[in-house]
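# nightly structure sweep
# worker-07 picked up a monomer target from the shared queue
# config: single-sequence mode, recycle default, output format = structure tokens
# input follows
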Amino acid sequence: MAVNGEQPKPCLVFLHGLLGTQADWQPIIDRLPHFHCVSLDLPLHGAQKAAIVADFAQTCRYLAEKIQSAVGGNPYWLIGYSLGGRIALYYALQAQIERGHLQGLIIEGANLGLHTEAEKQARWLSDQSWAQRFSTEPPSAVLNDWYQQPVFSHLSLVQRQALIEKRTPNCGVNIAQMLLATSLAKQPNLVAKVRSTDLPIHFFCGEYDQKFRAQAQQNQLNLTLIQQAGHNAHLENPDDFAAKLTALLV
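# output follows
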């Protein structure tokens, strides 16, 4: 867990994506000196590889404990990227947990859920296939194919290789376990709850991330575009991400 800043008004709690660690958010935290920032390792990631979870409910109970330990009774915003964003949505809108003084969500490049059983079945088969590969194959081979997926198509060869090198130490059976525990196939569709909740929810999306940009627009979400960035907008343009985050919260 990384913590930055002296004044806890407001606290910002950051959740990384699959294959990441709490360090992924450090470039953003460095640009937010006036906020109290906390970045957490998700279960089965980083320093928490031994924290095994079986589903979204267990993941959110883990998260609730970590947040309570980090922020106490202070108000906080939850900021999540990709898998971290999906977990944040489930935590805020679905989980049977104590959330403390959650003020709102900022969600980056996260899927709100699938619509049909056929979509869920196809996704489950895909996630099982990836999990098998993460469990048995050399990290470089799996990650090379992982970052060939359409959502990463904007990455240059240099950017793709840098991500493969960065993610290799975190790659293995632990990623397979998390992929299955928090599969999109197991996630309820949260569009209706996002639309009906009184909790402020804002969606950040890289301008080149066509998939999630279209999802946000189709569902009439509160969308903020990050310039010159794709799916991992906070990594690709931390200056614009931090500036727009600050403008939203100040």
